[in-house]
Structure formats: C-alpha cells, structure tokens
Amino acid sequence: MKKSWIPNIFTFTNLGCGVLSILSTFEHKYINACIFIIIAALVDRYDGRIARHLDVSSEIGKQLDSLADLVSFGVSPAILTYVCFNLSSIGPYGILGYVLVLLFPICGAFRLARYNITDFNGVFTGVPITIAGSVMTILILIHTQTNMHPIIPILFMILLSYLMVSTVSLKKR
C-alpha cells in the first residue's frame, strides 16, 4: 500500500461513520448514531496530521476530507436531529422541519467550500462543521438522558448554521 493512502483510510473511516450514523438514525438507535459521529470526529482529527507527517498532503485528500466532513458533521447530525426530535411535525406539512434539516448541511457545505478556496493561516473563518456537528451530537446524547424540549436543538441548529457561514474568527488549537 502506498503511504499516500494512509490518511485517506482515515478520511474514508470518517465518511463510513457518517453513513453508519445515518443508518442508525433510521433504525432509531440514536446513541449508536451519536457514537458513529464521535468516532468520525476522532479520526477526522488525524487524517490531515498524518498526511502532513508523511508528507503526502494532496488536493484530492483535502476534497475527500471535506466531502466526508459534510456527510459526518452536516448531513448526519441534521438527519439525526430531524428524526430524534420529530421535526417533520413542525409547520404546515412539516415544511419548517424540512427547512431546518436542509439549512444545517447547506451552511456546512458553504463553510467547507469557503475553507477549501482560501489559504489557511491558522484562524478559521466561521465555526468549523466538525464543531457544529459535534455540538448537535452532544445535544442528542443529552436528550437521550433528559428528554429535552425540541426548541433547544432547533435554536442550536439555527445558531450553528449561522455561525458556520459567519465571519467569526476561531484560532486553531
């Protein structure tokens, strides 16, 4: 195996965890869905570091990472929130639920695209999708133990969507 594939294995693990989270959500296994997102976040933390360490960073690796992040931290948490909190019942014909489930990954996709076309100087513009998706995941985990009111994740989803596309600056740790 070429060493250039090692970071891609981490990226594909991230993507796989995002897909498994979605499948777990459809089976109403919300804790499992959350665990898959958490695993995705852990492996996402290392794919770029490994690529830089092995000196195999590439444009395709950067794009694959963004696609995996969109699934694992944009689409998956949005679907998880939509199903777990029954957002299909919000608004006439569930239209507000549809808007919410679309808003989060769309804002995440914009955030990732903006990141991919700018030179990174150690400061993020907008909240990274990994953080936004992880916050939504933590809310779901809390909900499984406390049965929180649906307005809380709805407000967080709107706020985090805005923060992903905002120009707020966050220094990378």
TrEMBL record:
Q: Its catalytic activity?
A: a CDP-1,2-diacyl-sn-glycerol + L-serine = a 1,2-diacyl-sn-glycero-3-phospho-L-serine + CMP + H(+)
Would the keyword Hydrolase turn up in this protein's UniProt record? no
- State where the protein is found: Endomembrane system
Carries keyword Transferase?
Answer: yes
- According to its UniProt record, this protein's enzyme class is transferase
Instruction: Name one molecular function that GO assigns to this entry.
Output: CDP-diacylglycerol-serine O-phosphatidyltransferase activity
Q: How does it sit in the membrane?
A: Multi-pass membrane protein
Query: Which cellular component, as a GO term, is one annotated location?
Result: endomembrane system
Please name the GO terms of the biological process aspect recorded for this protein, alphabetically.
phospholipid biosynthetic process
Give TM regions: 5-24, 95-113, 120-142, 148-170
Q: What is its EC number?
A: 2.7.8.8
The protein's UniProt keywords, in alphabetical order, are:
Lipid biosynthesis, Lipid metabolism, Membrane, Phospholipid biosynthesis, Phospholipid metabolism, Transferase, Transmembrane, Transmembrane helix
Similarity field? Belongs to the CDP-alcohol phosphatidyltransferase class-I family.
Q: What is this protein called?
A: CDP-diacylglycerol--serine O-phosphatidyltransferase
